[in-house]
Fold these 3 entries.
Entry 1:
Amino acid sequence: MDFVTLFQAFGDMTFVNFCQHMVNGISLGSLYALIAIGYTMVYGILLMINFAHADIVMMACYFAFFGIRIFHIPWYLTFVGVIVATAILGVVIERSAYRPLRDAPKNSVLISAIGASFLLENLANYVFGGRPLRFPKVQVLAQNISIGDVRTQFICICIPIVLAICLAVLLHIINHTKTGMAMRAVSKDYEIARVMGVNIDNIISITFVIGSSLAAIGAIMWGVRYPGITPYLGVMPGLKCFIAAVVGGIGNIKGAVIGGFILGLGEVLIVAFFPALSGYRDAFAFIVLIIILFYKPTGLLGEKTTEKV
Amino acid sequence: MKAKKILSALLAGTCFFGMSAAMTSSVSAEEVIKVGVFLPLTGDNAAGGELELRGVELANKNHPTVLGKKIQLFVQDNKSDKAEAANVVARLIEKDKVCAIVGTYGSSLAMAAGNIVKENKIPTVGTSCTNPQVTKGNDYYFRACFIDPFQGTVMANYFKKLGYKNVAIIQEVSNDYSVGLAKFFMDSFKGMGGKIVEIANYQTGDKDFTAILTNVKAKKPDAIYAPGNFTESALMISQAHQLGLKVNFYGGDTWETNDFLEVGGEDVEGAVLTTAFGREVATTKEAKVFLDTFAKEFKNEEPSALTALAYDAYMMVYYGIQKAGSTDSVAIRNAIANNKNLPLVTGKTTLNADGDPVKGAVIKTVKNGKFVYVDFVQPK
């Protein structure tokens, strides 16, 4: 690979193609951001990385599959049901895998999270089988649209809008409600919050309800956009969204959104401008992670704290 | 604390009993001929592995005994994982003491097991691992399928026939199968005066192909050759349609699974692939037996090439043991290598010096959600 071929694509890039790449990148970035928020929220409150989050996304895809393809429930009702079912799953995981370890060292909870992740993957493999299934096609969302010569799916326009709504609602809950105040208190110091009369078990359950609902919304968007469902569907996106959360500053919700966009757009644009590097796009996320950890270990918007896992 | 100790003692006890039970059962099974099978039954390649397991089991049902002894299959799941493939093959050889092995789907998985079967001198017949490196320099690895150069060359000739001049390649860089097919396609297509306008790469497990497809679209190819795993390929073809990339996609035998149709839906209509078996060209007696018993076992299903190849791989081991007249693995190896004109499902088969069969390829296309026969190409 010589220098000339590496930079050839710069000259060949037309405006239409650039817009097409941007549209592709923004929709991928918004998806990463939606899932990254879930990671960052749980970390912010519990100071633990919920490795099962990506597998909750995977389970939500299966729930949607069963709702529409097997039980023939209309898609909009199914999507509501998926969000409820996924929220319940999140709380069940929290109660069974994390709550018993509330006063244990942080590392134990981390390992328990890895265990929960493997459990969900293998359970899905056993119950649903290892063969890929097609996420039910929702014609309204999956229809192709074109703006001039730039083409995309209707869902790709929905994803950033849904992200913006989720973000606004979430920031409102955290900054302007009593529950949100309690969440912030637990996040600062849960021992003191407990002494001050905050029911921390309830607050943590609510955190998991919100985090898992976001995972479900992310899963629905992901499924409509990339309709193959397998038990290991969550692994790679989960890793990237986790990196997005770290890049943005883990624990910071706006940071997770920024991190998601950096990763999504970066991955697409690196292929756009350096087609010769198209096989290395997964490496992009890890390179960004290493650079951030070197120069700004707390992430772009992260605060400096004395205690980190 | 005491309760914990009792519990752990109990656990240790059950483990021990479990182990001893397994040992006794394997000792008492001395009167059978043990044949190992390793296939990806879970993971990315599970669909292919499952179709092949059907073939091996069907062949075992039709030909259950050789040398007056029953053939017992030891089936192991290699989980579509290279490290796991090496592990399960080692287990088949060391623990189950098999005298021959059938498997696997996936060239990378087969290569991961290659050195182990070579060192232990256990003859192994690959089902649909089509990369040349699987058998090259390995006297103990054979296969029932044709190899990548042939598939790639067949497609290049077919492109020539269709009059395509500018072609884009999209390959799965982490998959030896995909890279192999693409390379041999390019070699022969360029040799015939064709032009490769773009080579795009992706990784196994990728979900988003919009970036590479936008690049490919900008180069305006006549057609796209994209051999690779069926899940990724189906997603890619769907996304190509969304981006308004209207040229046809061509691929290899991995696409011939129901999952390709399931994931791709109406988007994969018109996709073309090369494969090893078609009902239209099944002329041997074994093929008739295969089609009849398959129809009885799996009603309303069309046998896939993978099932036929796995059936043939078992039959190659079967005829090998028959000719060797013993379960000595080296004797079986020599018998498999020297058998000529075996009447198999996918045609009369003779192996060349590398251990690869020389036989024709079928071209199929997707029409109304089914794989339909288009053409048959003989080897040169």
Entry 2:
Amino acid sequence: MWEFVSERWQDIAYRAFQHTSLVVQALVLATVIAIAVALLVTRVKALEPVANAISAIGLTIPSFALLGLLLPLVGIGTLPSVLLVTFYATLPILRNAVVGLMGVSPLLMESAQGMGMSAFGRFLRVQLPLAWPVIMAGLRTSAQMSMGVAAIAAYALGPGLGQYIFTGLTQIGGQNAVPYAVVGTVGIIILALLLDAILLLVSRLTTSKGIRA
Amino acid sequence: MSTASTEAAEPRDARDTGEARSADRSVSGAEIVFDDVTKTYPGQTAPAVDSLSLTIPAGQVVMFVGPSGCGKTTSLKMINRLHEPTSGTITIDGEDIRSKDETELRRHIGYVIQGGSLFPHMSVRDNIALVPRLLGWDKKRVASRVDELLDLVGLSPERYRDRYPRELSGGQQQRVGVARGLAADPPVLLMDEPFGAVDPITRQRLQDELMSIQEELQKTIVCVTHDIDEAIKLGDRILILQEGANIAQYDTPANILAAPANSFVEDFVGSDSSLKQLALMRVSELDLHDAVTARVGDDGAEAARAARSARQGGVIVLDDKRRPAAWVGLREAERVGTLRASSRDLEVVDHRATLNDALDSMLAASHGGVLVTGRRDEFLGVLEFDTVTEHIQTLTREARTGESDEYAITPSEDELQDSSVEDDTGSGSKHGSEDDADPSRGEQA
Amino acid sequence: MSEQNDPSSAEAGAEQPSHGLGLLVGLPLICAAILGGWTLWRQTAELDDIESRQLAWGTILDLTREHIVLTLVTTAIVLVTAVPLGILLTRPAFRRLSTPVVGFANAGQAAPVIGIIVLLAMWIGFGFRAAVISLGLYAFLPVLRNTIVGLQQVDPTLVEAARGMGMSGFDVLRRVELPLAIPIIMAGVRTALVLVVGTASFATFINAGGLGALIVTGITLFRNSVLISGALIIAVLALLIDWAGRVFERIATPKGLS
């Protein structure tokens, strides 16, 4: 086992980097999309049940099934991975962003308006900071989930550590089958916990002291 | 208040004159005795209750009051063994409460807490029926008991028994809570801030109703409150506690108001004790005026004629259970033809209401008086403003002397370990103060 | 962690009960539309040998049945283990253990489910058993966490009222705590069902059957028709299971609470 790791150290590190990079980029994309949609939902209240239904249905569709639907459209490789991970990453953030932004007291928004803040200023300086802890919580859920979805995307030759798991599966019976699967699985667990710790730290640092739990 | 002091040993109902009453009214309550009871919570050095001894006479309402953290709630919860004393004994009707299984004991003690604490997933019927069912009553008996209790607390069984708690107002929930506490007809009823969660008007009404019920049932009621006005109004006697459940004074409301034992009690009761005396006087102590009454559906003109000949300015319309339904002027009565129930709320007080409450209601009414009802909201008569003012003048002319009975405990100033009062504990009448500090709340004992 | 639908609605830490009728009516309609469209295509399309073998009605029904059995067996096992453990962890004697246990289970969710399935199959052998255990491990947390949260959110004054009225500890649990916790526990069960029905697609990798086979065949044999058919049927099945969970949630919620 140890030998397996030391021999492939560079490859493992590279794949871990790929895995993380895929997840982080998808998360950034997902956050922007989710906040934009949530903002729209807070402006047009009629959209709220629609957004909630999309979140609920989207999260119900198995990732393997969605991957199957994507492949005929975009082929195999990195692109389906990015689309798949981004799709699932968006939903928890969207759900929390809607809850968070809607949760800001209308009184506060009105007093901000009364003080002469522009619509954009009100969003950026009042609404977003107050909703931020909730949005960050959604982001952490998304990050955990994305780590696993990225592993599944590897089945369609996506980048990252997931390929080690599938290599282990195809080499079953061979002497390296178990090390491949273990390194893939444990590697993803470590990456997920590290990313979660980092996000927790970011969440604390970017949340106003006044509303920190 | 000469009457009060000479009859201090009696429950105040005994002075009641509002209704013909039999002298041999049966007391269904049981005596509760605390003997040197101490409770120390694990991990704390100072006892929450420090050697408390007192006797709660059968059939009386005893109010436990005191500042937050004085141990009043702990003392109450030791009676049904939600908390176990560290030392000392508590007896109910002479029997040590530890001689019984604790669930068995609790099934025979009513328990009513703030807001009613109804189980939201059970209908009104199921909430009330809970203890009778635990006791294995048969279905028929349970069903009739539920209806009887709903009637008792003034809720129509047909209308309310199948409702769920969230379909009731706060006051209605609290009524059901009282009904639930009385379900198995326990001799003892424990109440923990029972009316703390409702608005002042509803609270006053609930208090009046509780007094009516108590007049009928004669339970031993132990009630914790932080509201000294509530204690004065409801209590046959009041236990004022200081930190560690040290007794500052235990006596009738009249004696406590007339002769506070020490500066702690004085501060707690407040300086306006002469105004508070208004809360000691009941509507039932005054003469009510007769009024011309009619039934819903009667002819208005005829009723108006009867009223004119009796020199009355209005007609009181009653429903089929003799409850006031409307109070109409003569002209209006003539105009409407057939008398109907009023859609507006009537200004009605229970005959157990205090003069305080009655004056309140009069100010809101447009008749210069207020309708008084007795048991189960039956109409008794009209209380007029002049009667009240005359009564007050008479009483203030009379001298007050405090004379305590065998149950009273009146420590002198220097007997108290610490009679100095902290700033915030003085105003006992403030509402909505924090709960009793109770570190073990919610833990299984 | 992997897959869809992490149950944590983040701040609350537990999946909240579903509300509203929209999805309750909408989901079956969506599913019926997709299935109807697919059936129409299946009856009219010209299929080659491989396709017609893979998409034979018998084959599809067999795979679907395997998929459903796997899902229900796993969920049932999770239910009878996680709920009692959750109850135990909220009893006074074990209450202090609930935080570390939930923390551990949370961290365990960081494991990619596909990795767990593969490793477990390597350890105890391919087949149904390995699939049930690995999927069960994965679905355990939401049910455990929701059971604990559901019981913890029961108003302590209600519990005290119940005890003060003379109910035994077991009575309080059965007649007050569990009925009040049911909506949240059921939300956890629905989450578990959805997790399992989705992850059961991977059971085919360890020869434990299920509809995942269609996707794998479709990809390896370059038959988009098979691939899309498999994906659609799995998606519809997941939506229907979610719907059934919602219906069940509504039925199980005591009347006074809904």
Entry 3:
Amino acid sequence: MRDLTDRALSTATVQGATYADVRIVHQVDESITVKSGRVEGVAAGESEGFGIRVLVDGAWGFASSNRLEAGEIDRVAAQAVRIARASATALRHRVQLDDRPPAHGTYATPVGEDPFKVSLETKIGDLLAADQLASSVKGIAFTESTYAALRSHTIFAASDGSYTDQTITHVGSGVETNAIEGDEHQRRSYPDAGGGWQSAGYEYIRGLHLADHVEALSNEAVALLSAPQCPSGNMTIVLDPSQLYLQVHESCGHPTELDRVFGTEASYAGTSFLTTDKLDAGFRYGSDLIDIVADATAPGGLGTFGWDDEGVAAQSVPLIKEGIFVGYLSSRETAPRIGRQSGGAMRADGWNRIPLIRMTNINLLPKPGMNLDEIVADTDDGLYLRSNRSWSIDDRRLNFQFATEVAYEIKGGKLGRLFKNPTYTGITYEFWRSCDAVGDERSYVMLGTPNCGKGEPGQTGHVGHAVPGARFRNVQVGVGKW
Amino acid sequence: MSQPSSAAGWLSLAEQVLELAATAGASQAEVIVQADDAALTRFANSEIHQNVAEANARLSLRFVDGQRIGVAATGRFDTAALEAMAQTAARIARNVEPNPAFITLPSPGPEPIPELPAAYSAATAEATPELRAEGARAVIAAADAAGVTAYGSFATTTETIIVANSLGVRASGERTTSQLITVSMGPAGGSGYAEMAAVDATRIDAGAIGREASERARATANATSIEPGDYPVVLEAYAVVDILDMLGYLGFSALAVQEGRSFVELGKRVGSELVTIRDDGADPAGLPMAFDYEGVAKQRVELLTKGVCTGVVYDGQTAARDGVRSTGHGLPAPNTYGPFPLNMVMEAGTSSRDELIGGLERGLLVTRFHYTNPVHPKLAIVTGMTRDGTFLVEDGKIVGPVKNLRFTQSYLDAIAAISAVGRDRRCLKGFLGGSVVPAVRIDSWTFTGATEH
């Protein structure tokens, strides 16, 4: 491949680029969907192509193609330079990149059992067994179970001499079961809505033990149909990891993206309340219990890699320390603007997309003391909320509202009756400041989502979140009417 | 075999892949080709900061062996890659149980798929980085003149779609789309939005879009807080498109009805008499599509007629289940989500924008929604935020900007409470397709929270 990357970089440089990088990506994927005990779709895909990113006259250009041929590389490199020159006609600040040592080496996701070598029969059989069990429960309208695996092989080369070779493998699976009666539609998911995902091999899927959980899951979906509506009011809530990870994602991960802070996502996803005047100024994001890191080295995370897509080595970056905001997710272009080095968070969704600042693994660190069961036992009156059903947050990441699939009443330290259709809402920093218990290592689990949308044209990111569950006080639950 | 560069070349390649499938033992087979030439120029802080182009192609094969189905796809078009893809699809089909819901792939329709000249513009296909930069500069100039800052994007796309199957379906077409969106932000916290989508990129008046957003940004400076609660509202078309998208997502699909998760019951009134929504892939006011991803010509489907449910869209599998013909709304296989209306059109009303606003005694004018998500799918209860231009209206006049609000609102209740529909409509891109929508006045809308800006 080096001959192709050399050709791309030299063509771009000859055409006028002062900096260039190229990524050649080969990707394979496989997906299985089972609905109501029947295989509904099985697909396998392959994609290959390259993208060339250049700086000309201080402006960015990027072009990409699926035709991995010498002539096409020449065409695309020239196109990227032409695009950059067009960018320069509406430029007010020349792009400056931080200095980083050239990147060299190889990285591969540790994989125990290669998911692409496990027989299709086994994978379908495992999924079908769980789904059929879920759909066998009386009162279930339909079930949907999914499995997917993705492997990306990326060669990155840059005009500063960087050359890395990475192979990343992600797998995910889950069961969703639905009960419907009249206007009521109740859903329960395992291990969480959207399935459980990790960078791993098929051993992770086996470890989910889907079939062991789904019968109880379906029974709960049916029970929710006749459960009382979740009450409204200001309450204590305990968030299960299956909901807490998305709370971290939306209200901690996205606001700390430095490109959003600088406005470069303003026309689409929005900006951030976390302006740079709050950095190193003691801004209290949460209670003393809140320690959040962006850790691209965490085992199993969907945001775990060797180098980001600018050739910056994987690292763990503190974002919130003892409740105080201390850092951003950053890139080589944005970090120097706050006097720092890139934290290595530039990630691209394939060969045909530019890297953007993306979450890596945004982890809420556990606190010694209580596990989740003990947090519940320590709660007199409140709600235990599990598994996300819907999410929404404003364009500066302040006002959020989440719905979960289920709420359990907590009375005298014990879980009680079910409530249906729970929602809760708040303002990001007020909510995190109200946290008075964070689970310990025994409750700490790596979750994540393969569906984080950002950018124009749209990109789908795979991001990880390790979280232990937590308790929050005086949270607004419900919207007063239904 | 090598990568073609024309629709005819792709069709020829698709036929070769059908032969590979037949050789591998397929009883039926379908090939879809999607080849895109897309570019997008993005600007922020009144300068271009991202500028990208992409040439991409993907071919997928649906391999049918009786009622066993396997799907494989590739972006490589050499003989070895295509043969491997066909073998993969065949291997999958051999490993799955028969799907009793599958009857057959579509046969060619009684009429040829209509040509849709309105779906394609050579100007868009030939759009250059310089053209897009010129559009960005026009928006930025409008922002500069208003003393605000411009953010946005200008995208141009040419899409070649080929569908061929072993029963003789041959659908081939090129379509183009372009879209300019902008958010303008002012120094006193104001922000404004404007957008236009069109088949022909040269029809997009970037300066006008820039002026619209910039004026809104100036008008929203120093917004004040307002208590959440129930208010009558006027929704600009930018907000109305979200209602259509969400109703399409939650209810207008035959599969949603068959699975019991849709609000649609044919003959049931869900909207006011002023609401008529159809899906029409041929409407030149939208972003036309002649056929779906099963190669079936798109039928015009009346979804809501004067507020009454009158139809849902079908693909091959859902149509077979109901004993009807596909309406041409299939998505690429394997599609477990079901059919989707990609070209929704809401009928215009008779009110000017001033008349819509003039009908509010005390209410809110909302420019657009942000980050909407269903809370209760069957009742179409959705939460989201207002964004980029929310105003208090009293006695029919805009009296000033207000800070953004969160709503938790049934979109069904909302369309039932529509009391006036705008006579002007916009072509806007939704989250999947392109829609043609007017502004509307709604007698009650439930805001459940507030934010700081």
